[in-house]
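#struct-help
A.M.: can someone run this one for me? Single chain, 212 residues.
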Amino acid sequence: MTSSLWSIVLAAGQGMRLAASTGGKRKQFLPFCGAPMYWRSVQTLAPVPALRGIVLVFPAQDFDVHVADLERLVHQNAPGVPVHAVRGGDRRQDSVRHGLAAVPGECDQVLVHDSARPFFSACLVHALCTALTESVQGVVPGSALTDTIKEVEADVVQRTLDRSRLIGVQTPQLFRTSVLRATHDRALAEDWQVTDDASMLELAGHVVGIVP
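D.P.: on it. Structure tokens below:
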């Protein structure tokens, strides 16, 4: 049976590293090929055969403005799948949780992606879906590190880490929806602070796989 897949596209981040050079405009809303950058993620995801819908998470500030822009883009481009919008939260994990609330209950798998990373492919999404086997509850893309990584304390190097055992992880990240929902509920109850959803699953003791 074909799994039902939805995607949460996060566009609620502050984009502080770039904001100083853009007059305060967040990266995900900068023009990119005639549309806000976040729209590139919608264009890449929409044709994926298993995809049933997309939830965009916008900042609470100017939410109605962003929704109006989104509705215009959907009307002009007809992505072929439902595209919804919800308000983000204070932290990334809060925004993901808000996005999850808009994902239908019958959805089997959910893809979480940061819209400030527009250069991913449908082939990567397919590879993630293929790698989400019964033995894992989540799958993330990973790339080998080329820099030497050192552990530091009080501005003093403590040790050099074995680079062969380390990878860099980005998005999109794919999860079993029921597992991600339950893990976010636990994270909220126990006040976990994490940088991505894979880290949250790791804390909960779930197995997360890697796609090179």
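A.M.: thanks! The chain has a mean pLDDT of 93.
D.P.: also worth noting: Residues 63-77 form the longest helix (15 residues).
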